[in-house]
Design a protein that fits this description.
It is a single chain. The chain has 197 residues and is α/β, with parallel strands linked by helices. The protein has one domain: Peptidoglycan recognition protein-like (Lysozyme-like, 3-Layer(aba) Sandwich), CATH 3.40.80.10. A 6-stranded mixed sheet has the order 1-5-4-9-3-10. The protein has a two-stranded antiparallel sheet with strand order 2-6. The chain has a two-stranded antiparallel ribbon with strand order 7-8. β4 and β5 form a beta hairpin. α2 crosses α4. The radius of gyration is 17 Å and the shape is globular. The relative contact order is 0.20. The C terminus is likely disordered.
Length: 197
């Protein structure tokens, strides 16, 4: 069954493949990344073009090293809090690269990748934190094996190779919003059960 976030703008890309069958492909990890193209530049459509494989190397000198790269994330949260979804959450996006979490490699198989438009050192926006909390809680409801302790940064699964989402990312802020929101969702679910009993 396809899973799309209702609040997202859909920009489907072809950089994905099916998850492995059975337990190997069961989603249990959420990975937070950051991205800006060119580095430190916000706005425009370069991120979407990268994931679509249509980024023109002539647009900026730094883009030449990205030519032919086939990568994607499931979704990206822009600076204004808008969410763009590129890959069905039930499918395997190509965001993690060489990666390992708690002794298990190949994180793309069992994870969801969310990009934040930003850099390691510039503060993320309030709109991005709000959108990330809402999207994460949607994903927690869809994939119950993603627990608070299994929401990690790209740096956590590719140490020494990746540094995002960086020192600028406020992990306590995210975790507190998830804990509060999730308890409300549980209460809301219980109330609905009572109404329909």
């Amino acid at each position: 069954m396809a899973i799309f976030y209702p609040q997202a703008q859909l920009h489907p890309c072809e950089h994905f493949n099916p998850r492995p069958d059975g337990a190997a492909g069961e989603v249990s990890l959420l990975v937070i990344h950051n991205i800006s193209l060119p580095a430190g530049f916000f706005g425009g459509n370069y991120i979407s073009q990268l994931f679509a494989g249509t980024l023109a190397s002539c647009e900026h000198p730094s883009f030449s090293e990205l030519e032919g790269l086939t990568v994607s994330a499931h979704a990206c949260i822009k600076r204004d809090g808008s969410v763009i979804q590129y890959v069905d959450f039930a499918q395997r996006a190509w965001h993690a690269g060489i990666s390992i979490f708690q002794g298990r490699s190949g994180c793309n198989d069992y994870s969801i990748g969310i990009e934040l438009e930003g850099t390691d050192t510039l503060p993320y926006t309030a709109a991005q934190y709000s959108a990330l909390a809402s999207l994460s809680n949607f994903l927690l409801a869809q994939f119950p094996k993603i627990t608070i302790g299994r929401i990690v940064g790209h740096n956590d699964i590719a140490p020494g190779r990746k540094t995002d989402p960086g020192v600028a990312f406020d992990w306590p802020r995210l975790r507190q919003s998830l804990s509060f929101t999730r308890s409300n969702l549980k209460e809301h679910s219980n109330n609905n059960k009572g109404l329909t009993a």
